[in-house]
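Handout, tutorial session.
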Amino acid sequence: MAATRYRIVPEKSLIWAEATSSLHAIRAESSAIVGHLDADVAADRLAPSSTPCAHVEFEVQSMKSGNRLFDMEVERRLDARRYPLVEGDVRDVAVVGADPGHYQVQGDIAFHGVTKRIGGLVTLTSLDTTTLQIEGSVALDMRDFDITPPNYVNPMFTISVRVVAEREKA
């Protein structure tokens, strides 16, 4: 039996990146996330026989900090015209602890022409019988993606996500 497909609802989802600099904290965000999750879910838990997979993506230019000059510099450094998308694919999911809905996720992220395997913790919650919410974050280093940050910006940043996905109608 095939897993149930859940489509990401962009207007209810958010991805944000946070970094520090010698000048101020930096936060950029986007609600332009698209993608899907294939899984069998019941009562905030993945079914034990389920082998979930997911694909998410967003356009680099959709990430905005509210500071036009900073956003332009980020787009230039990320070479957003050459590498317009950030894409993520879930490869492995494992239950964490006894609390329902907590998972260790491993996957691939393709960013700035580089693909890396990353891992992090996520929480899955059923909002209703057809809607899921997945939240998580992971710390990354810009240099791992061949990005040289400005001297005043710490190369470590955190990417966080809150995705709302609705079950596709059969």
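The second record follows below. Compare its token runs with those of the first.
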Amino acid sequence: MARLTIVALNASSQDAAFDAVRSIDPGNIDVVHAPFRTDWANVSARRRSGAVIEQDLPDDLRAALARADVVFSFLVPSHLPQLAPRLRWLHTPATGIDHLRGTGVFESDIMVTTVGGLFAPVIAEHVLALMLHFAKRLHIFEPQQRERVWQMSRVQSLANRTVGLVGVGNIGAQVARLAQAFGMRVVGIGRSAPQGRVIAGVDQLLARTELPALLTQSDYVVVAVADTPETRHLIGAPELAALQPQAVLINVARGTVIDEAALIAALQAKRIAGAGLDVFAREPLPADSPLWLLPQVVLTPHVAANVEGYLAKAIAQFAENVRRFARGMPLENQFDRLRGY
């Protein structure tokens, strides 16, 4: 194999994990570390609209990118194809790719890969934690504890409840697996037509056009679809109105999939029982958002997949793809430009 230069941004603390990459062809694979600092507001802006905050880049970063055959990074500078003219492959240690909008990557022939479903089981655990939180009424008992109030009320079981999966990809399939273990009925909608499709743990699979039917029968609705033009505000005022009063909406996908203003209105009017939100239209969530203070809302700061050892696990998976790349084999978890983003 010809000499391969891999530039890893913001991953120097995990250099030992890259030994698995170097060992694929010792002496022929260089891993070059370089920092690229930006803030979460930039990430959020890219995800929403592809807007990029232009930054001055240090000379060492420019020099590293100029010789890169492969880049390993969550976030990259704008104009990446021009900064890295040799670049053939970009691997992002993330599930989605919407944070790469506005960089020029999607308009180039650079291959893009992600972690795929590597962390789907962890995200599914987060979903189940939120469902249990509402079923066991912890959002009611927690403030009672702070106020030293002893007031008993009935709690629920997840068994025999219906969970509606808006998206039955890697994350949705893992939620279905756990929900089935709790004795729940699972209904899902996917991107493609359901004819002939069988997904373990999913009792009923519907077409996306049947979203209202899913919403009306679900006690818990879990949003787990990618942010695309087709899914922007997929859950809006009409969809929220279709939910049952006891329904809880959980979002571990992207904040833009839900019309946040419509959700706030539904929660304030108590038309639904609650919401468990890990993602938001703007991140960090603005301090003046009503979501912070609504008692039937549980917020987490985009941490569903942020487990200990995340980057080391992502690098280990990346090493397998480097092995495939070196052998001229198709890469796993490759972004499909024909389906869009």
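Points raised in discussion: The radius of gyration is 22 Å.
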